[in-house]
Design a protein that fits this description.
Elements (H helix, E strand, L loop, with lengths): L12 H12 L6 E6 L3 E8 L2 E8 L6 H16 L7 E2 L8 E5 L2 E9 L11 H18 L11 H16 L4 H18 L8 E4 L8 E4 L3 E4 L6 E4 L1 H13 L4 H16 L6 H24 L11 H17 L6
Antiparallel strand pairs: 1-2, 2-3, 3-6, 4-6, 5-6, 7-10, 8-9
Helix pairs in contact: 3-7, 4-5, 4-8, 5-8, 6-8, 8-9
Amino acid sequence: MNIFPVTESTLSASHLGQLLQNNYHLSSGAVCKLIRTGMNHLYLVTDGGNRYVFRVYTFDWRTREEISEEVRLLHYLKQQHLSVSYPIADARGEYLQAIQAPEGLRFGVLFSFAEGKKNAKFSQQLSYLIGVAMAGIHQATKDYNLNRVSYTSKTLLTDAYQTTAAFFGAGSEEMAFVEKLTAYLVGEAEKVEQEQVRKGAVHLDMWFDNMHFEGESRVTIFDFDFCGNGLLCYDISYFLFQLYHTNLDEAAYELKAESFLSGYESVVQLSNEERRLLPTACLSVMLFFLSMQCKKFDTWSNIFLNEDHLKRFIGSLKKWIAFHQLEVV
């Protein structure tokens, strides 16, 4: 019987558990449990007192080389004694597991478990520690080159707009705003004093959802799936954008933002040009992520991506723009 082609499958957790037991020499009592599908699929692996996360990349999302570069970056950060979730090699010394799924070849990587838990309403003290942690990563990744995407204005804005416009069409009020904002940000990118901003490997998606906190004393950062080359201030600005939208009280946001930046600058100073870019850099990242939602509609974003979502998304951008009194013309 011919098997009808599929766009995406969910791999059996029990069978993945057997694969991991064999390939990583885990005990026969090791348990694998699906914890999330989405951009990628995540499985919690428990072996006695040890926990791991096995990420299965969706089909045709990342190439073998792109994943290998993510692995290389995380190894480097671990060697610098930075608090990140890192990849773990199997018994043969391999990091990538190739899995023949119904839709085609998919890859999986086993990661260390980031101890602690997520908390969207983290304290001012943790804001400071996040700043310290991010600055430590940026110290290590400054001028570090990855054989992956470079986050230029073409990638974040021009190409992203084409993807979003192809999905939503270009006739609505919301898409007219996206087009205007894209043009504004392209113009702003041309004004950047390149010699005054640090560049290197960026995380690009550094916010509370990709961090675990152990009490008030430790932050572990994970999910470097979007890592690439770009301005380091993209990470700083994007974190501040997300912090703003998870703290509805602007006074509370400002205290946490100040604490975060103080923590960051206790390790490395921002240049005046980097500070100038903080209100706008995140907007480029957000428009890029909107295009990724459009691109991944078939396998992920179809549960939320529609006209109402676009209106809410634009609303969040406009609120940030108003807060910083930006003149988007």
